[in-house]
Task: structure prediction
Amino acid sequence: MNKLPTKCLLQFRRVSKLWKFTIDSSIFIRDYGSRQCETCCFNLAYKRSTEGFMCSVDEQMSYTPLLNTNLYLSALTPITTSEGVWCFSYGSHMGAILWNPSIRKSIGIVIPYMTSQPEIRKIVWGFGVRSDTLDPTFLNISMGKYGAGPWHVFVYTLSSNSWNSLENYRLPRVSIRIKRSCGQTTVSGFIFWGGYEIFFNVDGSCYNISMLVSFDMINHQFHVLDIPSVLRDQLPDPFYISHLGNSLVISGNLIIFENRYICAWLLEVDGYNVTSWRMLFVIPSTNVVKLIGFTKDDDPIVEVDRGRMLHPLQVYDRASEEFHNVGISADGGSFFIGPYKESLILLNV
Result:
């Protein structure tokens, strides 16, 4: 049965108690894994004014609205996706929603209030699904602003349904900070963020050095990855991280001799180090452009800022070297792409 699509398995659960018990078992869900779908490449979420929308997109970039998501999308902000499971935030650091679109199942996670932490702190969330056990893992990270104060990290795993505080030896140096504006992604069992470390000159002035921060979802350990100096000197500010296959992607806008470009670099990482990197593309653009994903043919999907209220979604065709409108416009910064994978994660919750 683990070769069947999830839609069939949901129907088979109604055949008998034995079939339901078998399909709902943790062993069956783990062995079923997560797999690409032939009819849907990814789901796309965006907001327009006070409304939230989500649609499925196929390999021809044709989109179909998802009418039955059972989610109040206007109140939710996507954090990231992992193994086909979406993670949304809602409220002011109040809670999160995990949603598996392939089985239309969602659950809520209440973020506990940490009374031991100062009020004025920077809060960063992290989410990923372990590739071996398919156990969703959620992180609540707080750190002092402007390089002041230690980290406090609490980890929630769905299998335990509990929060645990990480010991100090599992945390990065206290001078390292995560940049929420860079976004986050998961690659090969690690959650990645963009980060920086603050250094001070003898005259009291300070400067930042960009880096990557990873979290091992198996060992619950943070790691700091130095960006090669040659690449670091080229990085735009701000920069964003995403992924292409099992590789990390860093992207952003650069102005060279009064000409604007969107640039991206492909990084091979093992969770602990950047093992190699190369330029992925340099594309001339008259507008500020943000990379939000890739098509099935690895063409960049971008959000274009033309100085208007609504930003159009476009695809850059590498063959013709032209941008093409997808036909969707939304509030700036609200586009989010999640690769569509079928799985049974959350089924037995």
Notes: Helices lie at 6-12, 17-24, 26-32, 229-232. The longest strand covers residues 190-200. Residues 145 and 182 are 16 Å apart (CA to CA). The chain has a mean pLDDT of 90.
